[in-house]
Amino acid sequence: MTHPIIDNAQVMSNGQITLPKDIRSQLRLVPGDRVTLICEEDRVILMNSAVYAMQRLQSDMAGETEKGGIRSDDDVMNWVKDVRAEGESP
């Protein structure tokens, strides 16, 4: 288990803060990346937006493959073959 990074940042007059380097590194953020802020009562969770979007997609899609009858790698391969064959049809 990793230890939490605890640091402080000052809120500037325009509302901006600078994320400490250790936190940027932990979240794998580079200049130009976007972050998602989730406010829960008296705390804020800051996440790399790409990671947050993937987690939401995975959560939203949970169980959908089973609903579509896809239960194994072979089912996936057969579905891909069927889709490709449909694309080749005139």
Automatic annotation (TrEMBL):
GO terms for molecular function: DNA binding. InterPro entries: SpoVT-AbrB_dom (IPR007159), SpoVT-AbrB_sf (IPR037914). SUPFAM superfamilies: AbrB/MazE/MraZ-like (SSF89447). SMART domains: SpoVT_AbrB. It comes from the Bacteria. Residues 9-52 form the SpoVT-AbrB domain. Pfam families: MazE_antitoxin. This is AbrB family transcriptional regulator. It comes from Sulfobacillus benefaciens.
